[in-house]
Amino acid sequence: MEIRAINNDQEINQLLRLHKKNLRTNLTTSEQKKNGFVTAEYDFDLIKKMNSMMSQIIASDNGNIIAYALSLSSTLEDFKPDLKPLFDSLIGVSFNGRQIKDFEYYIMGQICIDVNHRGKGIFDKLYELHKTHFKSDYEICVTEVATRNFVSMKAHLRVGFKNIHTYADDIDEWNILVWDWK
Q1: Half-sphere exposure (CA, 13 Å, Cβ side) for 136?
Q2: 3-state SS, residue 71
Q3: Which residues constitute the domain of residue 30?
Q4: What is the block-wise mean pLDDT of the chain (182 residues), using blocks of 10 residues?
Q5: Helical H runs in the chain?
Q6: What CATH number is associated with residue 146?
Q7: Is the CA virtual torsion 168, 75, 50, 159 positive or negative?
Q8: Rounded to an integer, what distance in angstroms lies between the CA atom of residue 30 and that of residue 122?
Q9: pLDDT at 40
Q10: I need a surface site. Which of 39, 69, 79, 82 has the fewest CB within 10 A?
Q11: What does R_g of the chain's alpha carbons equal in angstroms?
């Protein structure tokens, strides 16, 4: 297994296939509860743009993408309108006595591991590489996880994220999580 940044368009297409298999809208309620899910939808052009701005981290096994951890610059708010509630929810939210907007931060856009490769430490390794790639430029990593996505919440808290705020939109109820690197 190899964990690294995306190298080419073929890998973006493989990432998108894994992404679609794990979308909340493509899973039963039972599957969501047992294995977790991803909510935000991405397309080829957006992933390519995101990759040109920040490294998009993947795990591959024998040339097949088995996991990904997407990173979003805060400037991508205009390109991904369904993330606007997250960006809006950060206004006025504080962490360690400072408002989030006053930190150097980026958004963890989504993390997903193929169901056949879970429980092997890949989640932690994806985040370790994120920290290696981005720690020199950012103080914190911010993400949101649906409160009902217990699998994802447990994994994020395990690697060091802290739940700092909860809000609801027309899709779900969300926990805003921060991973402090300083």
Answers
A1: 3
A2: strand
A3: 2-180
A4: 95 96 92 88 90 93 95 72 73 91 90 94 95 93 93 95 92 93 84
A5: 9-21, 29-35, 44-53, 84-90, 122-134, 150-159
A6: 3.40.630.30
A7: negative
A8: 23
A9: 85
A10: 82
A11: 15
